[in-house]
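quick one: MRU bound model?
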Amino acid sequence: MLPTIARESDAVVMIDQRKLPSEEVYVRCKTAADVARAIRTMVIRGAPAIGVAAAYGIALGMRGSKATGTQKFAAEFYKTCELMASTRPTAVNLFWAIDRMKRLYITLRGKPLAEIRERLIREAQLVREEDIAINRAIGRHGAALVPDHKTVLTHCNAGALATAGYGTALGVIRAARESGKQIDVFADETRPFLQGARLTVWELQQDGIPTTLITDNMAGHFMKSGRIGCVVVGADRIAGNGDVANKIGTYSVAVLAKENGVPFFVAAPVSTLDLQLASGGQIPIEQRAAAEVTHVCGHRVAPEGTAVENPAFDVTPARYVTAIITENGVARAPYEESLKKMVG
Ligand code: MRU
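yep, here:
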């Protein structure tokens, strides 16, 4: 399995996803600030993976804390949580992981600081291990939905690289293949950051899963051809009514899927559900640097002075979503009811 993120004795090590596929290099984060920078600059990305990274960031930060008194330690703990929360706004898994660390910390108050440090590290490890198990369960639930002898279209990278391992959308594809289905994959290149071209194709090639790269604007053409059996994507945040925030371009894919009668599946852990939000309009959308749009892999393709918009995510209304596949089962409309059952 691909080593997205792992702990070493005094550090957290991540494969540098900005450099893939041309270079396979690893970044060692020794402090909470190192982890925060890695999340912000997308050394590590993908909703579940940045949740795991945030948990490690908090644990690493408190391991390195020089505080000897409870109050100073508590102040540093909450400051480190804030640092992690400031990295990226859309993926709710980040905030879910921070809340989990906070909840543990509250139960540990009054214990020796050495024990608290150790327990925070263990909790981060657990978040990582559980994520892999969750993805396998998502895969098992989703595999049955994938039509045999067809092509699965996916957008962005919701694979092992976007999680602690195995992936959500790519987990469904892996599980469908493991169950014997004869499927191949179409990967949208996913402008502007090219997670599809650089990461999904690379990741699926490692597994020997036949994968074809298409540019984002080819998706409609292939859906109309009848070749695409279903779309499977991941999610960064899902509102209580089933609206799904995911990588920019997902909404267009969903509309095209509905128009062409292609099932549109979202694969995500329960930690991606934000049931406090009534609808997707309340999901904060990250705006990223203009250079990601004016440049491709560091090469300028637009004139100097070009006005740019760069929302990193869009929201797909629930009416386009055929089903949401979680580790606890498959939710279908009406999502207000079915998603609550997934959490329960
Ligand atoms: O900006 P990114 O690369 O972090 O965006 C990633 C996505 O949109 C993924 O589809 C989503 O996080 C699900 S990952 C299992």
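The pocket of MRU is lined by residues 45-48, 91, 156, 158, 162-163, 168, 195, 234-236, 246-247, 312 (CB under 6 Å).
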